[in-house]
Amino acid sequence: MRVLRCADSGVLVEVADLDEALALQAALAEQPPAGVTDIVPAARTVLLRLDPDGGDAGAVAAAVGRLRPRRGTRAAAGELEVPVQYDGEDLADIAALTGLSEREVVDAHTAAAWTVAFCGFAPGFGYLVSDDARLHVPRRSEARPRVPPGAVALAGEFTGIYPRASPGGWRLLGSTELVTWDLDRDPPALLRPGVKVRFREEPPAPRRRSGPSAAEDGGRNARSEGGPRADAGS
Question: Cβ(203)–Cβ(85) under 8 Å?
Fold first, then answer.
């Protein structure tokens, strides 16, 4: 673990892997150092934002150094159930890559206890992890130019829900009508670090019309990069 100053009002903690980052986030949430106003986890780092008027970076760094995070622990930030229609274009490929049947892929995804590890790529996009390694699959070799909002996908050890239309290289497992990012809601994001998620299977809905919907029009402001990467934060 390495503790670094980050600008004038932050402390960045570098760790070995995602599991250590999540354990550190949980320990900090349980014993937050004085002067810390926000804890922002990523794949291999945890950023501590400090009160610019009262945060002492040296004291915070020392407090972090005294912590003894327990691997396997996760911060708790509520629970969320997500209804999913498992009709994704890549479901057959996911089954082939994992050695499972399509039915077993769906059963594994709904049975797993998922936790939002961190957020990134686009507003409202959460990187979810579970203890079921059977669902670890590589990204597609080529990103799609457009993934619809609500797409539920897999890449690496993560599952995620695209909050708006955007390019993306994750493998599409299904879709949900749940709106995960809404600026008129407080907080806007449903998927925040520490939120525990269960996916629930729903019967496939009729195919959407080919024209852009109002939600898809929201993609005008999406970042035009190649979609969320499975190694984000490294």
Answer: yes
- Per DSSP, the three-state class of 219 is helix
Which is nearest to 39 in space by CA: 14, 57, 12, 62?
12
Q: Are strands 79-85 and 196-202 parallel, antiparallel or unpaired?
A: parallel
Query: Maximum distance among all alpha carbons in the chain?
Result: 57
Q: What domains can you pick out in the chain, each with its CATH number?
A: 2-66 (3.30.1360.40), 79-221 (2.40.100.10)
The region that residue 111 occupies, defined by phi over 0 for left and psi between -120 and 50 for alpha, beta otherwise, is alpha
Q: Residue 19: helix, strand or coil by DSSP?
A: helix
| Residue pLDDT tens, the chain, 234 long | 898 888 878 899 999 988 899 899 999 988 889 999 999 888 899 999 999 887 788 899 899 989 888 887 777 778 999 999 999 999 999 999 999 999 999 999 999 999 998 998 889 999 999 999 999 999 999 999 999 999 999 999 999 999 999 999 999 999 999 999 999 998 899 998 889 999 999 987 666 544 444 444 444 343 333 444 444 433
Residue (of 43, 60, 45) closest to 14 by Cα position = 45
Q: Which residues contact 57 (CB under 8 A, 6 or more apart)?
A: 5, 9, 10, 11, 50
In whole angstroms, give the CA distance from residue 17 to residue 171: 23
Give the angle subtended at the CA of 77 by the CAs of 4 and 139, to the nearest 5°: 70
